[in-house]
Description:
This protein folds into two domains: 6-87, D-Maltodextrin-Binding Protein, domain 2 (3-Layer(aba) Sandwich); 114-170, no CATH class. It is an alpha/beta fold. The strands form two sheets. A three-stranded parallel β-sheet has the order 2-1-3. It has helices at 16-35, 48-56, 69-77, 133-149, 153-156, 158-163; strands at 6-13, 39-46, 63-65, 125-126, 169-170. The chain is elongated and about 65 Å long. Strand 1 (6-13), helix 1 (16-35) and strand 2 (39-46) form a beta-alpha-beta unit.
Amino acid sequence: MQNGDVTLVIGAYSVAKDALTDILPHFQKEWKEKTGQTIRFQQSYEASGTQARAIAGGFEADVTLLAMEGDIGKLVKAGLVSKDWKQKPNKGMITRSIVVLGTREGNPLGIQDFTDLTNPGVKVLYPNPKTSGGAQWDINAIYGAGLKMSELRVIRTLLPRRIFSSKYIAT
């Protein structure tokens, strides 16, 4: 490595890998043009909780991207992130995400929105929320869709209860 060149270690949750694979080469090019420095990345991708535990335990990441607030809390507890991280201008978020409904080819059951997931014959497959940050976002999206249905608590919680009932598949 030439004098002044930079290596950054990235420890991120696994879903970020595809995006960073596209973004980092552009960043490298722009950084080189602006500073004259070559920047290299050492990358580690794991489940968000696994990555947070690794960093809290001594993995020296310069940059981290984590899926869940609780995982950032592990880094706060370890003294690696400021307690006021959510008070910053972007409130700790660099992106906004959406949950996408995937169907079998041709969408034979005509799924258009979350309410369709409660129709007879529809089975929902989603990751285990105990181990997947993405699954926790799925739960939040379903709950949010329920909130839009009514101001009455009993109605707005009906959608999540029906989707997560025992007739649906969770893996």
